[in-house]
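Record 1 of the preview.
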Amino acid sequence: MTPRFGKVSLTQDSVESNWGVNYLSNFHLLGILSPAIRAQPADRGVRIILATCSSYIGGEIGTLKDTRHPLPLGKEYGTSKLALMTFAQAFQKHLDAYKRPDREPNNAHVIIVDPGLTRTPGMRRWLSMGSLWGLLLYLIMWPVWWLTLKSPLMGAQSFLFAAMEADLGRGVGGRFVKECAERTFLRGEVNDEKVARTLWEFSDKQIEALEKEGAARRAREKKEGKAKEDVGGGKRKEEIEPNVDKSNGAKKPGSRRSRKA
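->
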């Protein structure tokens, strides 16, 4: 989470951290795991729980730019969460569309969880706006935050509910849980198939570009590492090579034995 006055941070692949961590990593991981999820036995319930927060209401996924910083300025975090929720619904439909060989219904359910406002380090960083003055104000107002924000243990209850409530493992997937109860989405884009398709294609292109760049970088690093090893190996060979004239086996004049003679 990047606070209002905080510096924009990047992932190892130079992707804006809110987009990379909150959304793109989940998109890529579930894309990789999709065949394994669909191949699970029919009697094994699979739950995919994704975390969001109420900031998704202010997100804008209709203005994404095809760059490493695709999010609209000032709405990075909320937009990344809105994108995640839209993808969650699309991924549930992707799972439902799969025809199992045993003709059993889909047994994987995507559940989106909003833990509410909790006293976590991320919330502290957001409220302090990434500045020392903001942190000082946060500490002064600590009694207010203690009364109005939930403890991390209370915030975790919705995740436990999503993981263990029997009803969420039956019927339709893609449900939204907040305060240990099922809620409706407050943004229409979450269930919009056209928006979801555009987002999915946009994300696929980004992943493909990142994988190509990553492969090229790894090949370059491997080549450079091998060159360094070759140079280092040559130096070590020169250091341990015996000080002997190979032509006649005699010691060179500078050797210790020749000096003794």
